[in-house]
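thread: overnight batch results

M.L. [08:02]
morning all. the overnight job finished for the chain we discussed friday. pasting input first so we're all looking at the same thing
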Amino acid sequence: MDDLSPHERLRQRAERAVAVSSRAEIESFFKETAKEVLMGLARNPHLEERDLLRLLERKDLPHDVVLELAHHKEVRRSYTVQLALVRHPKTPRLLSLPLMKFLYVFDLMRVAQTPAVPADVKMVAEETILKKLEGMPRGEKISLARRGTGRLAASLLFYPDGELIRAALDNPYLTEGHLLKVLGREGLPAAVVEQLAGHQRWSHNYHLRLALIRNPLTPFARVLAFLPDLAVTDLRDICLDHRMPQPVRKYIEAHCAARLNKHRRVPPPT
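M.L. [08:03]
and the structure it wrote out:
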């Protein structure tokens, strides 16, 4: 009759998890939930790359178990396991941040796009990519502009390459906020402003239209097309910005005056 206490049985299972070597026995421990047993399994020297990856797919792994897995001998041999560690939400920053230096650009992008990854780790992944942009082949830049985070797409708008600009503007993660910051920075290629002003998605955004009217690189024909749909009060505020070209400012002032006069001439309803 088994008269072992629950604590003793748990201790024995944890010891067994460290020592098992056959595939069938190792397999029997993957559904464990007890931290002590999982810690034992993480220390098992017979685990293979596929075993570590399978464990790291579990987002419920305790922090200490992830830390133990990070010290397994297989980690040094496997790039795939290193990437899985960086993408795991329980991996300590002291381990994940140094590992990012060895990741490829598009794997860094995956890290930055993994929802469960802490925000500061995502930011470091983006910063690491940004440092590599200058030496990156054009094709990779275009792929990154098309599929990367909104911040990366916005950064790639500063390269004077029409195809690259189109890919970045079509990026699904790009936001109004990213583009408003871009329009406020110096050194922006004129092609960016021209494409943005005619973009099917962005040219209809109210706040971007206001920012485009302020921007001296916006084609005058686009400015004229935007004016009727913008509030007179917003347009008059724009005219207070003396960085705007004087001819554009004067035209907007005249446009506002004409709209106000037309409104005054409308007879009241009977």
